[in-house]
Each structure stands twice: as C-alpha cells, then as structure tokens.
UniProtKB/TrEMBL annotation:
Organism: Acanthosepion pharaonis (Pharaoh cuttlefish)
UniProt-recorded name of the protein: Uncharacterized protein
Domain of life: Eukaryota
Residues passing through the membrane, by range: 5-25, 31-52, 59-85, 91-110, 115-133, 187-205
Source organism phylogeny: Eukaryota, Metazoa, Spiralia, Lophotrochozoa, Mollusca
Alphabetically ordered keywords of this record: Membrane, Transmembrane, Transmembrane helix
Amino acid sequence: MYFFFFFFFFLFFFFRPIFLLFFFLHLLFVISFLLLLLFFFFFVVVVFFFRLPLLFCRVLLLLTSSFFFFFFFYFFFFFVFLFFFFSSSSFFFFLLLSFFLLLFFFFFFVVVVVFFFLLLSLFFVFFFFFFFFSRKVERNPFPFTLVVVLSRRTSIRKSSFHSDPSLPLLPSFQSLPSSVISPHETIFRSFFLLYYFIFFVRFSLF
C-alpha cells in the first residue's frame, strides 16, 4: 500500500500522463472493490435465505474468478511495464500501454457491466418476492415468515400447509422437513461464502 502511494507520488511529479493512467486504473479497482463488497453482503442474505439456484451461484463464482485473474495480470504487467519503461524502450512502452487499455475495456464492459446488471436483476427479484408475500407476512406474527416461505423446497406442496383450516396460514420452522437443504448444497454454499470472504480480505489489504 505504501509502495503504491510513493510510486504514484513519484509519477505525479515526473510522469504526469502515466500517473493519470495508473490513477484511473487504481480508482477503477477501488470502485469495483466497493461493488463486490456490496455483492458480498447482498448474497449472504440472498443465497442462504432466498435460495437462489446453484447454477446462478456458479455463474457468480465464475465472474468473481475472472475478476481475480484480471487483477493478477494487472499487477503482473504493472511491474513488467515499469521494467520496460525504465529501460527506455519506446516500443515496449506503447505496447504495454495498449495492453493496459485493452485490459481496462475488458474489465469495464465484461465484469463491471455484468455485475451491475446482476445486482439490478436481483434487486427486482427481491422486490417482487417481498411485495408478493407482504400480505401473508402481515397475517402471521412470526418475524421470519418471509424467510421460511422463500427457503422451502418446491417439492413441498402448498396444499399440505392449508389442508386444515385450524392450522396457521404459513408454516413454522418445526413443520419444515430436515431435508430442506441437502448436504452437498450446504457444502457448496459454505464454500461460496468462504471464497468471497478470502477474496475480500485479500483485496482489502491494497
């Protein structure tokens, strides 16, 4: 962190265009980190309580991995760029500069835009479910009714809870079977959270 601070300070006084380039890329990194941090807290709620499909979780892991590899190559070619820049080779300088620009466009249009539309779509899904079950939640005093309804499997028939008029409108935790979350799905979701936790702890050090 201090290395980047002094390096940017050095570029600001001696190489102003290069400083602007790296400052813009670093600012893009900070913005993307904040977006992913928002995704982390959002998916802790959505994945475990609203029961998103496993395919959707795998797509998110794939996008996060692409984000990780982007910054791996970014910092790798960052030092390669320094080596060729101080060796005063104009050809490699413009070559690496163009490569950084290509990486930027790839990151912005593929990763940031995709994550933004995923977040937007998940927001509308959450709003739809909340609006759809709002009346049922009002009729049941149990505070986690919405979570219980959204977390049960589709194989649980709705008629089984409403066959008896004396029963409450919505089920409680005791009425849910023990196989609501399968073992392999629990392992995958735990790995999903562990992956994001390590990811954010790693990049929060920069």
